[in-house]
């Protein structure tokens, strides 16, 4: 039991600090899961709210409300070391592209939708942000 100025400190395995989910084993899996979950919830709210709007409105909602959640502080925690973490976040963007283009067929090419919407891949955006940070340093 650890105390600080007479207060007992609770030991936890994860903690949220500056909106980053820090794990005791310094793994970013928990943070990536939480980020993908939050982004999917926001994407679902958008889908229910603007389902009858044109493609450009749906795309603007995604780029304004969902993508910043997935990109927050990626220069610190970028999931480049595990493909599983990258895929979780990419799935959110791919679902958003299907929603924006209103094409849910299994044979529809999501890559073509992303190109049509002119959305860069999240990996490209993370790399650009990392390079920008290094330049500013």
Give structural notes.
It is a single chain. The protein is mostly helical and 137 residues long. The chain has one domain. It is built from 6 helices and 4 strands.
Write a short abstract of this structure.
Helices cover 61% and strands 10% of the residues. The protein is mainly alpha-helical and 137 residues long.
Q: What's the shape?
A: elongated
Side by side, the strands of the main sheet go 1-2
Helix content, binned percent = 55-70%
Mean pLDDT across the residues is 88
Oligomer: single chain
Give the SSE string.
Answer: EEEEHHHHHH
Beta content: 5-15%
For the terminal residues, how far apart are their CA atoms? 41 Å
The low-confidence parts are: none
Structural class per helix/strand content? mainly alpha
Helical run tally:
6
What can be said about the biggest beta sheet? 2 strands, antiparallel
In total, how many beta strands?
4
What Rg, in angstroms, do the CA atoms define?
18 Å
Number of domains: 1
Features:
137 residues; mainly alpha; two-stranded antiparallel ribbon
In terms of topology, how is this protein built?
Layout: E1 2-4, E2 7-9, E3 14-17, E4 20-23, H1 29-49, H2 55-71, H3 74-77, H4 83-101, H5 110-117, H6 122-136
Antiparallel strand pairs: 1-2, 3-4
